[in-house]
Amino acid sequence: MNDFTLFEPLSPAVRSTIIIVIILSIFFIIIGLRIKKLDPNKTPKGFLFGCIMIVEGFNRFISDYMDKKQFKFFGAYLFTIIVFLAFANTIALIGLTPPLSNLGVALSFTVMTFIAIKIAEFKFISFWKKMDNLLGEVKFMSPLLFPINLIGEVSTPFTMGLRLFVNLLSGVVITTMVFSVLHWTFGILAGVFLHAFFDIFFGLIQAFVFLMLTTINISLATDANIDA
Question: Which residue, among 217, 222, 216, has the nearest Cα to 123 in the 3D structure?
Fold first, then answer.
């Protein structure tokens, strides 16, 4: 007989995702409440000053790739992505399973990116202009171009999710090989140190790459169609 269960145990990657979301939510709520209490006539100090500088630096960086309207609408979402991925890709340092080691979690970012791109298109351009762009410039070839362009609309965010998963997986494989060799030749301390270094390096690089791909695709989704 087949066993039926209403709820299955959560996978380690999903548990790590939930833990990260809870911790970051509490952290941002506390920081937000403390910032609201700041005196606007006084310069913040200490940890709050560092947080404000990080956000300001992020805003200046992303504003180079988006206009003011796009940045105002998507800035908070993009900042959330980079912070979550930075923690998610380096959480193995404290013994938890990286969420992106699960293909389902990685592809969930594909869904979010696809939705973000569609929101950008339909917010900043008209539906009919978008349809006209999918049909192509040469109208008599529209029956051929429309399905090709439609596949391209879906494939871009899908490949981003796969890239995130595969790059992180390859990084884990490489660091494991390096750790094994160094542990055998130079001892466990050298291996552990470089293992941590590669975890941080690969994790932060992949977080940055995904942020840039998301930012550029959101920007191009509107700019390319507006110019069309």
Answer: 222
